Amino acid sequence: MIPKKLNYMAMHLISDYIFNPITDLDNNGKLAFRKTKNESEETPRFKVGLEVIPDYLFDGKGMRIDGISEDKLAKKAGLKKGDIVIKLGG
Asked: What pairs with residue 52 in β-bridges?
C-alpha cells in the first residue's frame, strides 16, 4: 500500500515553502538584475605554466612529473617523467 507510506504533512509543508516565493516572484514581474564588475577586464591576463603534467598521486615532498609537453621549454630544459621538482629558481 503506497499511500500509507507517503508523508502528506511533509509534502504540504514543502509545497507551501516553495509555492510562496514562486508566487511572489510571479506577482512582481521580473527579478531585479544587477550588473557585476567584470574583473577580467581590469586584471592583466597572462599565462604561466611549467608545461608538465603533475603526478597527482605523489604524496612526497615536491611535485613529481608524470609527463612533459612536447616541444616546450620544460622538455628543452631536460625535465623528464619521474623528476621531482622541489624548488623553482635559484
From this structure: 68
Across the range 62-79, mean pLDDT stands at 88
At a CB cut-off of 8 Å and minimum separation 6, what does 75 contact? Answer: 51, 68, 69
Confidence of residue 30 (pLDDT cuts 50, 70, 90): low
> 516565493: which residue's cell?
21
* 3-state SS class at 64: strand
Whose grid coordinates read 503506497? 2
Burial (CB count <10 Å: 0-12, 13-18, 19+), residue 79: middle
pLDDT band at 25 (very low <50, low <70, confident <90, very high): confident
